[in-house]
Amino acid sequence: MSATCARGYACAVAHAEGRALRMACDHVMMDASKRITEGCEVAFFPSVTGG
Fold first, then answer.
1. Which helix (H) or strand (E) holds 3?
2. Cβ-contact 25, 42 below 8 angstroms
């Protein structure tokens, strides 16, 4: 995710280790250790705050 975080501080904070960011690859939930290959369908689910 380091290439994504090159976009700026807010992005780096959102993707920092320990943050609540869920990911899926090909419709299966995964963690950051999953190797993504060409053709994979990837989805990110950021944390949502309520009030």
1. helix 2-5
2. yes
Give residue for tokens 């960011």. 21
Q: How many CA atoms lie within 13 A of 23 on its CB side?
A: 14
Residues in the chain: 51
Contacts of 45 (CB under 8 A, 6+ apart): 21, 22, 23, 24
Please state, in angstroms and rounded to a whole number, the distance separating the CA atoms of residues 19 and 37. Answer: 24
| pLDDT tens readout for residues 5-51 | 556 676 666 666 666 778 899 999 988 788 889 999 999 887 765 55
Q: What are phi and psi of 13, to 5 degrees?
A: -65, -45
Q: Which helix (H) or strand (E) holds 12?
A: helix 9-14
